[in-house]
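Two proteins, back to back. First:
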Amino acid sequence: MADDRAQGALTWRRLAETDFPLLRRWLERPHVARWWNHETSPEAVRRDFGPAARGEEPSEDVLALLDGRPFGLVQRCRLADYPDYLADLAAIVDVPDGAFSIDYLIGEPGLTGRGLGTRMLTAFVRRTWDDHPDATSVVVPVVAANRASWRALEKAGLHRVGEGDLEPDNPVDDPAHYVYRIDRPARGG
């Protein structure tokens, strides 16, 4: 059953450089750091998230807001814009032309385990179809050990289409990954 704290209006806005202190705090939280394993100095956050925030690279970093308050981040990219990443995934599963990928986190620890991740993923996949009429599918690799993440993907309607070794974000993890996919619904579906 969903917790009342996970209810409310879900909205989105593009990550801005003014959000970097918040993002940095999220990346430092143990439940995020475990899977993202990201350098959290102000310089590193600026270096790694600045180009997308300024529109200098094709990926999109979007804040998820619950009743107007940021609680999570979704990164989205067209796989064709990142040929090395596409090649890594294509070695494991069929990746259709027009495929996108996402990565995500819930930064607020009090909102994890409440069904909000599933809501966020479901809504963002729908948003991908709306924002990118040429998007054919969303393909998401997730480290096999991150059960909460791949369960949220399953609950959001993505299906496991393969498994194989990919470089993990955190070097303590085994390279085993599950790959999930959802295809654009047929017109009218």
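And the second protein:
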Amino acid sequence: MGFRQLVWALIAALLIYGAWQLLRALVAGRGRAEAASPPAAAALKADSMAAEDADDDDADFNYAPLPSDVVAPAAPAAPPAPEAPAAERPDTFALELELQRLRREVGALRAALDVQQGEIGALHETVQRLVDAPPADSSSLEDSSGQNASPEYSEALVLARRGLSVEEVAARCGITRAEAELVVSLAARGEPEGGA
């Protein structure tokens, strides 16, 4: 099959699809036009209901009584509503497109909601594991002098008090050189106070 034949086949497929959509729009428009004329259908239904009610009046009470001119005078009939001009009637094809767009958006929102629900579930499990876990040993948070230190720098402070250099403290604890220098200087200032 050559390129030209492929293009013609594609054009034919698009024309068939367009004709199908046009046919669907016409059928949907005709259905709406029939549904838009309820006075005639209501009159037919009322006549058939009256005939059925006359046949089995006592057998079934699931009907509405007919208004009587004796009980209350008939109200003047309201003028029929004017039919909307063609320009103001909703376009069936446009409504169908809008409906499809809204369905896609709802699908995307549902997918996003599923992802969020999964993440929330994972977070709940993590929090539950943390709540159920035994408390951490608080002795590691205290330095040798008994004072509380930040857990991030407690090991660095212990190493600095043992006499390790700034580079060694930074390498072993995974902190920057500036932080290691600060910890070493704090350890040097704290040793004479602790030793005295």
